[in-house]
Amino acid sequence: MEVLTLLEITAVLWVTYLAVTWWLERGRLSQLTDKTVLITGCDTGFGNLLARRLDQLGLRVFAGCLTEAGVAELRQDCSERLQPIQMDVTKTDSVQDAFRLVKQAVGSKGLWGLVNNAGILGLAASPVEWATLDDYQAVLNVNLLGMIDVIKTFLPLLKKSRGRIVNVASGAGRVAMPHGAPYSVSKYGVEAFSDSLRRGMRCFGIKVHIIEPGFFRTPINNQENLLRRLDQTWQRQSPETKTEYGEEFLQAAKDSIVAADRFMQDAVAVVDAMEHALCATHPRSRYVVGWDVRFLFMPVSWLPTDLGDLALRLVAPEMTPTPASCKAGQ
Question: Catalytic site residues?
């Protein structure tokens, strides 16, 4: 009887918490036109969509683009409130140039929002040992080290406004699949750094928000590019490695890329989460976006390690093909 009572009290408290949270999250900030936001990675994808969204809402936006084409497109399509700038997060000089430009523009008001969206996927559907150290370094330079450099550079402007930092992590930052290790390593790092930053910046009034998307349809997940990159990775493997894994493994890896493309979700949901983190009166510290993260990656991350590994093999066998040499030994 006491157990039932405890369960009833827990259920009431949980429902109350959800109701109060839902009510608080409906609130929106006033005078958005007084706020300035810097977004990295605006050439395409989430960053591009968010820059356009915030421009329509009346915020002043600095949209960091890697390419001149990205700068030109946003300059042509958006209002004068949006200022696209060429910015490479892997180069400190480029980050410093952006800082000086934004600092001069915002003055004593400071920077309200910083969205660290720039990211690359690196190798896809490739086993851990196929990736070189350079493959890991390339992904870390953009997804993690570049993000850290941008945050450390712009913190003085964020402190002035007691602003918000939005870091794009991933469901792959919760659960690392056996393939695509460089990307998962970088996103685990984003999660760790964001948690440290959130707890350390609280006393300065700066809020830190993590976005955890699942599989969404953006240029980073372009099927043709992923398949081409997989072929290039396969071709550089040694004859011994090719024999060990086999052509059947390579085809299964390609099939997994094609299968994943069918389950890609609409990127608008991620942009909605980013907007809420920047514009809500009571934003969440963490946004889990996508049915795959919510119903697969999160539950698996909560399981004991061996059970989580078993669940992935059972639920997503196409994501874990078996090398030829392992089949021979079974």
Answer: 183
